[in-house]
Design brief:
- Its cofactor is Mn(2+).
- This is Hippurate hydrolase.
- GO terms for molecular function: hydrolase activity; metal ion binding.
- Keywords: Hydrolase, Manganese, Metal-binding.
- This protein is an alpha/beta fold.
- The protein folds into two domains: 241 residues, Aminopeptidase (3-Layer(aba) Sandwich), CATH 3.40.630.10; 110 residues, Alpha-Beta Plaits.
- It contains ten helices and 14 strands.
- Strands 1-2-4-3-5-14-6-13 form an eight-stranded mixed β-sheet, with helices on both faces.
- Strand 1 and strand 2 form a beta hairpin.
- Helix 1 packs across helix 3, helix 3 packs across helix 10 and helix 6 runs antiparallel to helix 7.
- The protein is elongated, with a radius of gyration of 24 Å.
- It starts with a helix and ends with a helix.
């Protein structure tokens, strides 16, 4: 698995362009005894027909990020400007390890098994491409499992929880349209910059009053407007994110922002528009499925979900699923150009995958 990780790390490719990565993966799995399906140009789905009643699935993502690597590793990415800075190389290595284990131990398997080598987790559409292939439905998959390497959690330990694990993300742009005028004649214009500042203050006051049990994030990281110091800004754009674990909560926050904006439009005679990119749904672990696996001795239960998003949430909308974090300890954050991890944790991940195969009656 370590060799797989190092080899894959060097050929980092972004979503739906993982051609060399797919070729490498195909070369490793083509003789494993599974039926190998190609999904789109870069996805692979393997099916091990073990003549069992039920079928379970395991998924890895295979894409990298457009990041210039700064690790200095001897196996650093050979594709300048692209890097496996989110651990997907490790995820693939573990699933290749599982592929090999299943191929060599098919007589021990309690289930038919689907293995998903999914493109484009970082860019929307990867999980959807797998669902749209119809293969998971065709093979009547009963449960889907997946891993993500996770900094700050204890190295080598496996963590998860029932219910909400990762958030839905709505990337949010607020566009404020005023009327340009020289500041010496400001009464003739509509100051979109003033509206933006006051609106931001109002939104953050609203956010502070949301009930504590409504786990959420409502933050903005960019604001752009104006062209010169002595002219009122014609237009301002504020960019941020709304995150929660419930579509109802997402909509409640959006509705509240619209009501605030309506008041500002009336007061300042400005026009305010919202643009949302709703991204991935929340990762919601199936409670019944989680109860069946929580007896695995190496599984640790997280107290709280995280606010990061992952397209594994697309699967949780349609199938019983459980997603796990594999701790990598005190290392640079995900998406950091210096991200790296101790590859010994891959053995822990594979052992946990094997333990999942031993559970009865999914």
């Amino acid at each position: 698995m370590k060799n797989h990780r190092m080899n894959l790390h060097q050929i980092a490719e972004i979503g739906f362009q993982e051609f060399q990565t797919k070729a490498y993966l195909y070369e490793q799995v083509k003789n494993c005894g599974a039926v190998v399906h190609e999904v789109g140009e870069t996805g692979l789905v393997l099916y091990f027909d073990n003549q069992k009643e039920k079928t379970i699935a395991f998924r890895t993502d295979i894409d990298a990020l457009p990041i210039l690597e700064e690790t200095g590793l001897p196996f650093a990415s050979k594709r300048e400007g692209f890097m496996h800075a989110c651990g997907h190389d490790g995820h693939m290595a573990m699933l290749l390890g599982l592929t090999d284990y299943i191929a060599k131990n098919r007589e021990k398997m309690k289930y038919n098994i689907v293995l998903i080598y999914q493109p484009s987790e970082e860019i929307a559409g990867g999980a959807k491409s797998i669902l749209d292939s119809g293969l998971l439905q065709h093979y009547q998959v009963q449960a889907i499992f997946g891993f993500h390497l996770w900094p700050t959690l204890e190295e080598g330990a496996v963590f998860s929880k029932s219910g909400p694990l990762m958030a839905q993300s709505s990337e949010t742009d607020i566009q404020i349209f005023g009327k340009s005028a020289h500041i010496a004649s400001s009464s003739e214009g509509i100051d979109s910059l003033e509206v933006a500042v006051r609106l931001m203050s109002e939104i953050y006051d609203y956010e502070k009053k949301l009930p504590e049990e409504m786990l959420h994030l409502l933050k903005f990281g960019e604001i752009h407007g104006g062209v010169i110091r002595n002219v009122l800004a014609q237009e301002v754009t504020i960019k941020g994110s709304i995150r929660s674990y419930s579509p109802l909560h997402q909509q409640e926050i959006k509705d509240s922002l619209r009501k605030i904006a309506n008041r500002f439009e009336e007061e300042f005679q400005a026009k305010i528009e919202f643009i949302y990119n709703d991204g991935y749904p929340a990762v919601l672990n199936n409670s019944e499925l989680f109860d069946k696996i929580k007896s695995i001795s190496t599984l640790r239960v997280l107290e709280h979900p995280v606010l990061q998003a992952e397209d594994f949430g697309v699967y949780t909308e349609h199938f019983p699923c459980v997603f796990f974090f594999l701790g990598v300890g005190d290392v640079p954050a995900l998406h950091n150009p210096k991200f790296d991890f101790n590859m010994d944790v891959l053995d822990n991940g594979l052992e946990f995958y094997k333990a999942l195969l031993e559970i009865e009656n999914y």
